[in-house]
């Protein structure tokens, strides 16, 4: 059989998709990649994930141990090609390591990318609602939650109630059922709070944010909802998606 080489090389697009979002996720993560394929990926936006080493239990020491892997992890996402946004998908580690330190580590590999963390995105979301007094729900232990409470208080938020579920394994956090998330969210919200924040990228809270809002009558910000919102807006997608929660109807600060 004869093989024939085409008479010309094919014309190439600059990119297969117009926008690129890179995810740096934990090796144990069940939720972030699924949520981003559902909420962010589309005909214009590609979502590309890499995983970095992580060992349970969820403790400040284990969370901090991920920091040296961030630059190498970012570099593995479409090597030598620019990304529009890179999101590091761990809320508790973002508190322990620090938003600025994470941005520095990611930009060492992807210097032109905007960097999103769940904590910074959550703060932007809460401020977009004008929330000052908030309720917080986390799946973590009291010890792991303490630094998160300090983080939000340090940024000027008044915490009306902070509820912890006491789990130490992010794989178990991913297995909290949506109905249970709704039930705990209702218990965690005080009448005088302006909004509810549900922490942890492992928790499947983004998918029930609108349900929770209907139940509590207040805006809900979750880790994955906030980062998806930030990534969409940074990629120029301003389409309101009220079925995913009130946050998905708002503009991103500074844009």
TrEMBL record:
Its EC number is 5.2.1.1. InterPro entries: Ectoine_EutA, Iso_Racemase_Enz_sf, MaiA/AMDase. GO terms for molecular function: maleate isomerase activity. Gene3D superfamilies: 3.40.50.12500. Coiled coil: none annotated. It is an enzyme of class 5 (isomerase). Keywords: Isomerase. It holds the Pfam family Amdase. The keyword Transport does not apply. This is Maleate isomerase. It comes from Shinella fusca.
């Amino acid at each position: 059989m004869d093989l024939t080489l085409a008479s010309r090389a094919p014309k190439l697009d600059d990119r297969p998709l117009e926008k690129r979002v890179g995810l740096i996720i934990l090796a144990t993560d069940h939720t972030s990649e699924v949520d981003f394929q559902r909420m962010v990926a589309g005909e214009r936006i590609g979502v590309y994930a890499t995983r970095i080493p992580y060992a349970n239990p969820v403790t400040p020491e284990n969370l901090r141990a991920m920091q040296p892997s961030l630059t190498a992890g970012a570099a593995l996402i479409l090597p030598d090609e620019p990304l529009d946004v890179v999101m590091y998908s761990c809320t508790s580690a973002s508190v322990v390591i620090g938003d600025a330190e994470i941005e520095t580590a990611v930009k060492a590999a992807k210097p032109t990318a905007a960097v999103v963390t769940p904590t910074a995105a959550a703060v932007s979301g809460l401020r977009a609602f004008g929330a000052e007094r908030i309720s917080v729900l986390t799946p973590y232990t009291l010890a792991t939650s303490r630094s998160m409470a300090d983080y939000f208080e340090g940024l000027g938020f008044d915490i009306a109630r902070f509820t912890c579920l006491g789990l130490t394994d992010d794989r178990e956090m991913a297995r909290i059922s949506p109905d249970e998330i709704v039930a705990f969210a209702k218990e965690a919200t005080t009448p005088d709070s302006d909004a509810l924040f549900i922490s942890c990228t492992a928790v499947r809270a983004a998918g029930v944010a609108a349900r929770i809002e209907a139940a509590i009558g207040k805006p809900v910000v979750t880790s994955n909802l906030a980062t998806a919102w930030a990534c969409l807006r940074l990629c120029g997608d301003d389409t309101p998606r009220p079925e995913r929660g009130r946050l998905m109807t708002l503009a991103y600060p500074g844009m």
